Amino acid sequence: MASAELDRERAYVEKLYERLDELRTDAHKQLQRVHSQDVGGNHQSRSERDAFARVFEDRIAQLNEVDERLAFGRLESDADADADRDADPDDDTPFRYIGRIGLRDENLKPILLDWRVPQAGPFYQATAATPMGIRSRRHLLSKGRRIVKIEDEIFDSEGLTDDEASQLQGEGALMASLTTERTGRMHDIVATIQAEQDRIIRSDLAGVLVVQGGPGTGKTAVALHRAAYLLYSHRDRLKSSGVLVVGPSRAFLQYIEAVLPSLGETGVVLASVGQLYPGVDAITEDEPEVAVVKGETAMASLIERAIRSRQRVPAEPQQLDVNGEPLTLEPHVIANAIARANEKRKPYNEARVSFVKTALNDLTRALAAQLRSHGNTVDEDDYGMLREDLRSAYDVKVALNTAWIPLSPQKLLQDLYARPQWLAELTPTWSPAKRALLRRDRDAPFTVSDIPLLDEAAEHLGEHNERSAALDRENKQQRKRDIENAENAIRNMDVEGLVHAEDLADNFAELASRGTTAERAAADRTWTYGHIVVDEAQELSPMQWRLLRRRGPMRSFTIVGDIAQASAAASASSWREAVLPLVGRAKLGDGWRLEELTVNYRTPTQIADAAQQMAEEHGLPVTRSTSVRQSEWPIVTVRASGAGDDVLAQAVLDAVTADREIDSRGTIGVIATPAALDSVFSALAQALPGETGLGAVGLTRQVAVMTPQEAKGLEFDSVVIVDRTAILEGSTRGASALYVSMTRPTQRLTIVERGSSL
Ligand SMILES: Nc1ncnc2c1ncn2[C@@H]1O[C@H](COP(=O)(O)OP(=O)(O)OP(=O)(O)O)[C@@H](O)[C@H]1O
Fold first, then answer.
1. What domains are there in the chain, each with its CATH number?
2. pTM score of the predicted model
3. From the alpha carbon of 191, which atom of ligand 1 is closest?
4. CA 633 to ligand 1 centroid distance, Å
5. What integer pLDDT is reported at residue 250 of this predicted model?
6. Contacts of 591 (CB under 8 A, 6+ apart)
7. How far is CA 298 from CA 541, 542, 546, in A?
8. What ipTM was estimated for this complex?
């Protein structure tokens, strides 16, 4: 019986693959048709052809992506429930197959449902207690294109206990997925999404949704699947406005970058918090106490004051030389020009244009009056020439620049940090020690905590020059033209419904090096996204939240994180506090919604319990979660034979070697404080050359050496913690750092302690 069923499923899935192959052949044919078009020397036709070619190439790539595990589920409707429904007369089967994309046969009858459509919902949500009109759910486990196993759940609610009613769904498929070796890259979980996760994935697009969950509860996986779900369900809106996914580090982005493409979504902007200001890619972290100061909202008003203070009315009249003609610049001329320019409340650099205009007009009148008083004839027609003389006169330039200096965000921040006297004038209530925290050289690289400050400054400064404002306007018009051209081209090619105008316009832009929606969004500081996903959100400072609020004024956010894992010094200690800069005080009560995830899919029970116990002992606000499995290895603790770095590094090498003896193919994360990193890395790299990598590089190697900060959000088959005590005591949030470190393994944990000094 079981084998007959397996054969039956194999036959069905083979049919699906045949259809997939047909679609791929069609796309290839369309591509050939496009390529064989005779477009002669006409540049526009050529670029239109190339843009179409890309659409079909992308389609082929998307069909290739879903080849693996194309179909993974089947729902059988309950006959009684079916009779009650408005059953489709053509629908002669009680079965619905669920897969990575939707497929229809040549008669347009659905043969595979995209996992994101509402009809696929029961595959993830139905339980014996709430079967949602479903009689049974079947998981199809496959290897390549072949179904190797089927697993059934029959929803028969009679005789259920509460415990049974809340069991995991597709347990066999889930366990198979959870125990596979890790590769340094995250995979999608479409086939085994659990009910509590699915509810979050399908939650409404509007509003601020916060997802709290302990380590390994699938927050990242859920956030990414939610992005894919929203892009599918709200394509029109999100395709043009874009979706931004923010993660803590580049290593993390590298870890997650394959998930969305494998779900068929490529146009999402992924950025680390250090990459949120276009043109600057910050990787350096400030010392914790510096990051705290830079993260406070007080920095916003400091920046505003700093900018305002760059408008200066001279105390005394100034003597100017205008092409040999002496001219007195009275302070009231500057004061008046400043006041007039500020009336319109434009950003600083834009208002400066009016300031210069008013000041030059006043000076022109003064110069004309002076020339007349010397007996010259000056009439209205000469004013233009006089204004030009003034504009180009060196003294005038210096005087106007001193009164209202043109500023870029970078220059403002560099000045603020490098000129202690100026900072002191701006911060009379700060202690000298606090001011000293901001002090640094002008040419020091910007840090991750500087990014929101640059953005804040840019907000007040506006466009640095008129050219970039004009360029911005031109870009917007060009986009409109691209879309119109794409719509015409789609009509001409007779592929309406097959090709989206936005996609084609993206290709026009890309081919003309103007950038796709995602590229333009990433490069444009003033871009506003349709939805923003923030991962490891507990780390964000108020200033970082302010930046994100500007990127998402529609307030459509998915925020995932774990307050107990907050290790950044500037991070919040509750979600209420964290979302305050995003939703504002008035909306703090009802402007956001909170969901919780409670099942740990990553870490085996014995490791998760030890980590939770340690965290609770140190007063962290832990969300208790239940691990879905045990592993056979107990936690190993070893003590180095001495206190020196060399001895410690040797003990780590021994631990790694012992672990590789258990499993020679798995990934190992070696987590150490920044101080111990180098010695540990050199010992490992020397013993295991080519197999060991530092930081993000480690994700492509078997052994990855990194700090707890870098390990955030990542996972490994096995983890070796180096000098547990140093991690715990190394920073104000040491317990969080240790909690993060202890919850990275999927199988084994070794803790190496430093030995005592003799
Ligand atoms: N429903 C699921 N089916 C299969 N695997 C899952 C499922 N949910 C989560 N996982 C796996 O569990 C692991 C942990 O998930 P994820 O990294 O999303 O957790 P997290 O809550 O973001 O963890 P952390 O807070 O520690 O970063 C990943 O390997 C993920 O693929």
1. 1-180 (no CATH), 208-277+525-600 (3.40.50.300), 288-307+409-461 (no CATH), 312-403 (no CATH), 465-520 (no CATH), 605-753 (3.40.50.300)
2. 0.86
3. 3
4. 21
5. 85
6. 207, 208, 555, 579, 583, 584
7. 12, 10, 12
8. 0.99
